[in-house]
Amino acid sequence: MSDVLAAQTAPQARDPRTIGAPVVSLAMPRLRREAGRLKNEPVSGEKKVLLAAPRGYCAGVDRAVVAVEKALDRYGAPVYVRKQIVHNVHVVRTLEKMGAIFVEEVDEVPEGANVVFSAHGVSPAVVNAAEERGLHAIDATCPLVTKVHREAVRFAKQDLEILLIGHTGHEEVEGTAGEAPDHITIVNSPEDVDTLEVENPDKLVWLSQTTLSVDETMETVRRLREKFPSLQDPPSDDICYATQNRQVAIKKIARQADLVIVVGSSNSSNSVRLVEVALEYGAKAAYRVDFASEVKQEWLDGVRTIGVTSGASVPEVLVQELLDDLADAGYSDVEATVTAEEDLVFSLPKELRQDASGNRDARALGGRVR
Ligand code: SF4
Question: Which class in CATH covers the domain with range 146-227?
């Protein structure tokens, strides 16, 4: 049994700071902190933190990070990774220290070397380019992104025009669009619908990026259907369970919060969406930080209740650092708001399912653990 699976099977401590928190698979060094950096200013009433659960690592991110760790373990450093394995600065820096080299494109990888494709997925053109270079590719694309790729291929075979709701330039959207470039049109926002033109309004289907705001996506679909009544739906949600769960949790907290702090990187789509959702659902202020050290003293002025959450690519250690700093500033009362339990574990990429002696890795099958 792998260390990760063993840790996830073990009963979790019921400290409110850990309820619902996914297991961190990366060996995280303790961050250097300035003790007492935030001042304990007087505020009328009790100061407290409402801690969202679920938050942090999702099954797809955990799998991708473990894939790089296992590849390093099996093949030795360096292991090349196309793009950031997941959108988190701390994860990328930590894996770099372990021997991963992050590149933008496969032509930067020496011929014959090992390369891991990130959780966001790649287009067939990238797979072909890696093959032509003789690279040993390990595909850490999240299975929920792969599902969207398959839908795109299937709809393109049916000669449908696919309206892909997502952000132009995001790696996931580039990968999905690359599956059927002649059939896909990207729709960035509800406002895009006004100017959208299609070839045949009776042969349309929509798909979406996995990490969008649920509400905004539904609004885009509503406007699309208003304009194109024959629009077909995908067979199931493309916005993944982790994105949805984190948004539900922060919605519940937002209206009680004077301030919401989201831990996550600026290029993490689901983290940025959490800030937007918090503001939409009543938080008086909301900010995203990569590290606790980025919290500004003035954000806490007159603040009694702080909501805290983190994006799907954020290791729990970063949230704990934030809670420690907030405790120093008088917010030591931490109340968990649990809106769902998550226990999904994905099997490792097939290239890593057997250990060096040919035995099956304990995570070969994935599934749910309790
Ligand atoms: S956020 Fe969703 S789609 Fe992205 S890696 Fe996590 S589970 Fe997969």
Answer: alpha beta
Greatest C-alpha distance within the chain: 66
Pocket test for ligand 1, best of 139, 142, 343 (most atoms within 8 A of CB): 142
Q: What is the bridge-based pairing of β-strands 204-208 and 184-187?
A: unpaired
Q: Return the pLDDT at 44.
A: 80
Ligand 1 pocket residue status of 148, Cβ below 6 Å: no
CATH number for the domain running over 59-142+351-368: 3.40.50.11270
- Assigned token pair, 88: 């988190």
Question: Which of the two residues, 39 and 238, has the higher pLDDT score?
Answer: 238
Confidence of residue 355 (pLDDT cuts 50, 70, 90): low
Return the residue whose CA atom lies nearest to atom 6 of ligand 1: 60
Residues 6+ apart with CB under 8 A from 37: 293, 325, 328
Q: What is the pLDDT of residues 285-331, one digit of tens each?
A: 999 999 999 999 999 999 999 999 999 999 999 999 999 999 999 99
Round to whole Å and give the CA distance between 5 and 23: 9
Mean pLDDT of 158-167: 98
Mean pLDDT, residues 48-70: 98
In the chain, domain spans:
10-58+241-339, 59-142+351-368, 146-227
Strand, helix or coil for residue 187? strand
Calculate what percentage of the chain has a pLDDT beyond 90. 82
Active site residue 172: yes
Residue 92, SS3 per DSSP: helix
Retrieve residue 15's tokens: 């400290």
Q: Residue type for 282, please? A: G
